[in-house]
Amino acid sequence: MTTAILQGQADFGAERHQTDRAGYLLVAFFALPFFLFNILPVLFGVYVSFTRWSIVGTPKWVGLDNFHKAFTDQWVAVAFKNVFLYGLVIVPCVTGLGLLFALFVNKRYPLSGLARTLFFAPTVVSATVIGLVWVWMLDTQYGLVNYYLSFLGFDDIPWLTSTRWSLIGISIASVWWDLGLAFVLFLAALQDIPGEIIDAARVDGANRWQRFKHVILPHLRPVISMVVTLQLISTLRIFSQVYVMTNGGPASSSSSPIHYIYNLAIVRNLFGYAAAVSLLLFVLILAITVVQRFLLRERA
Amino acid sequence: MMTAWLDQKLEARGLERADLFIWPLGMAIAVLWALPFVWMVSTSFKFPGDVMTKDIEWLPHRVTLNNYIKVFDYPVIRWGFNSVVQATVSTFLCVLFGAMAGYALARMRFPGRDTLFYVFLASLMIPTEVSVIPLLLGFVKIGWASSYQALILPSIGNVFSVYIFRQFFLSFPKELEEAAKMDGAGPFNLFFRIALPLARAPAIAASVIIFTLNWNNFLWPLLVTFDESMKTLPVGIAAFTPVVGTQTQIEGYSVAMAAVTILSIPSLLLFCFLQRYFIQGLSQGSVKQ
Predict the structure, then answer these.
(1) B194, B220, B62: which is closest to B133 by C-alpha?
(2) pLDDT tens-place string over residues B1-17
(3) B49 vs A contacts (CB less than 8 Å)
(4) What domains does chain B contain, in order, with CATH numbers?
(5) Of A16, A27, A279, the CB nearest to B116
(6) Tens digits of per-residue pLDDT, A40-62?
């Protein structure tokens, strides 16, 4: 990561001793809102997590109470368990389908530009669109999905209204929404593979599967690792589609950490506790990022 | 004879026989992938009585605009106005400030420059959701909840914009700058007169992507808007769900689908016309890391 980003640094040899003071001013316009509204709140949040704070009252220092509470709160456990299950469904689907779709579009068939547009389109619309469209698609009685599944002999599945299916229902919508980014990243990586390498393998008599396994896949390793990490993190942060489609229900069966944090703060007015739970989520996300960086470095 | 001719044809396109099967299958999946949008639009033009039925009509046998009219019983114009203000102002500031910072980080020398860039990059590891609760407390304390400042300010510091411009300006021809410097242009002149006008491609890429993010932003506007009149379009229209609000049970899915059709039009149009920039920007912004 660093080498690619810091290249170009050496261009300044001749002017080594010169300092462009205007540089500070040019950066300041961005840096000011960035530190005020993106960094400061995180530090403030650490303080908030050690207090009991409702939105109107004054904060009361409670030490580690909120964290103690979080570790024994069964709904925190449920939310984190759910998000683990979401990850188990969404991450492999997005990665696998994204790669398959990218391999297809990369082939430059007739109309592959159209296919690219169609595969990417859901990613650009808002969670509200995704949520409402899929609430309707997955409607138990009149939804399209159950209608077509009935031809395959399935009974009506209560996708969003049963504790058993709600996670799956939301996952389907999430895969549809999230796939575009993975797809585009895979497509860009595929287009970076020199065509001659693949042609050479073909001339040597490698079939499609062998070419994929021995030529294409090794090139894709870093992108796959990146897509898995990005998708894992974005799944840990799953909220809007949950909020729109089930509001975490029924009986918290589809709730997620952010959804629980939202409820703690907005519905129950427990801002200190909400901040503590969001710090726990942050630590989890940070750990995943660090592990991925470490694994990438090991391999390189 | 026939197969030899076929093989030759395929060979010329770099294809194999298996592609004769893969191509239609892949195209069918691509069309299938877009069907929820088709169903959304189709439902939005149906009479409510034709919606909740077991007869699936992809093309409704009779259509109405009534659902769209009903959507406007809710303050969607106000929500739309809020969304436009929020998304355009914060995107404009984010792209402009990002270009300035990206330029300085790529082309100027000053102590702390690289540290600053590392801090920007490292902040990508902080999910926005972590800062949302304390940010809300802060905005409430200073009396800015439910305001345009609250909707706009936190979206300006999007590092993606800095990153895209820095990448671009790293490979910017030095000669142009030098010539301008000879003429005695100061750094601001240099940036606004020479560098920025040539940075069209990264500016469009950053703008479309950041605009889409801002237009679709959900959690923060949901938290910070207590007044119905300050809601943004995605947050306001989310109330058409059968779960949170009560509207859908009364109005039915046809009105909800009309509402989300309206909501998705700006993003989909922007995407259709500027697809190239979307895809370039996204892959540049992430793959090269």
Answers:
(1) B220
(2) 677 888 887 777 777 78
(3) none
(4) 12-69 (no CATH), 75-238 (1.10.3720.10)
(5) A27
(6) 999 999 999 999 988 777 888 99
